[in-house]
UniProtKB/TrEMBL annotation:
Residues 5-239 form the ABC transporter domain. Gene3D superfamilies: P-loop containing nucleotide triphosphate hydrolases. One of its GO terms (cellular component) is plasma membrane. InterPro entries: AAA+_ATPase, ABC_transporter-like_ATP-bd, ABC_transporter-like_CS, ABC_transpr_LolD-like, MacB-like_ATP-bd, P-loop_NTPase. This is ABC transporter ATP-binding protein. It comes from Paractinoplanes rishiriensis. The keyword Nucleotide-binding applies. PANTHER family: ABC TRANSPORTER RELATED, IMPORT ATP-BINDING PROTEIN. GO terms for molecular function: ATP binding; ATP hydrolysis activity; transmembrane transporter activity. It comes from the Bacteria. Signal peptide: none annotated. Keywords: ATP-binding, Nucleotide-binding, Transport. Pfam families: ABC_tran.
Length: 245
């Protein structure tokens, strides 16, 4: 199995001296759904940002779909990222003045591609939003907005979709719908999803969970259940608190 994303000895130290990543090596196999978890401040968002080419590590290498991002200049990296990576954020990040359909095709436009109306319509229909294409985001519920964001993340047929707390702003039911959708994106459509979450219930939708503590890998769990994830997290929390005390 090839890795859609590969991280090799990743270090990230921010200005001011905080080491957010302290030598992380990990692979995310193509066609898998991975949750990244860990105590607050353990480096989850930093890992996602570096893996996605939104930020650069201080040292180490990042491969996205076989291309080394860390060896690529800023302009080429942005171009590559726009076509090969999709993004889903907690607060949806939809542009309020664009319709649902215009939001979905935006990554294609930004990448200089023709907006594929038939393709975007097909994705929106699959996600149950076929009749909302001309609406502005403000007319949609949170769960519907996040489904639009999922459609937008998929429109370029990316090698990997990165999701940062995608259910953090949703009620339980909408969260379940979005997570089920992400699982389908992986298991029915063969995509790769890497999701940062605080929520053990959300993590249990993934194929495996990667745990971080103090910027380092702190284990992996395959076929996670919410209870098992919560228990492991509690122990990581103990350790992180112990390191501070
Ligand atoms: N832009 C920044 N400048 C300086 N320090 C930062 C910056 N971003 C993050 N950090 C620090 O790096 C460490 C890791 O942060 P990061 O956001 O990656 O953790 P996290 O696990 O995603 O946390 P949370 O669960 O609270 O969102 C923290 O100590 C944080 O304060």
């Amino acid at each position: 199995m090839t890795d859609a994303v590969r991280l090799e000895s990743l270090y990230k130290t921010y200005d001011g001296g905080v080491t957010a990543l302290d030598g992380v090596t990990a692979g995310f196999a193509a066609g898998t759904f991975t949750a990244v978890m860990g105590p607050s401040g353990s480096g989850k968002s930093t890992l996602l940002q570096c893996a996605a080419g939104l930020d650069r590590p201080t040292a180490g290498r990042v491969f996205l779909d076989g291309t080394e991002l860390t060896a690529t200049g800023d302009t080429a990296m942005t171009k590559f990222r726009r076509l090969r990576a999709g993004f889903i954020f907690q607060d949806y990040n939809l542009l309020p003045s664009l319709t649902v359909e215009q939001n979905v095709v935006l990554p294609l436009r930004l990448a200089g591609r023709r907006a594929d109306r038939a393709g975007s319509r097909a994705v929106l229909e699959q996600l149950g939003l076929g009749d909302r294409m001309r609406d502005l985001p403000e007319r949609l519920s949170g769960g519907q907005r996040q489904r639009v964001a999922v459609a937008r993340a998929l429109v370029t047929a990316p090698a990997v979709v990165f999701a940062d707390e995608p259910t953090g702003a949703l009620d339980l039911r909408s969260a379940g719908e979005v997570l089920t959708l992400l699982r389908e994106v992986v298991h029915t459509h063969g995509r790769t999803v890497v999701m940062v979450t605080h929520d053990p219930v959300a993590a249990a939708y993934a194929d495996s969970v990667l745990f971080l503590a103090d910027g380092r890998l702190a284990g992996e769990m395959r076929a996670p259940t919410a209870d098992a994830v919560a228990e492991r997290l509690a122990h990581l929390g103990d350790r992180a608190m112990g390191a501070v005390a």
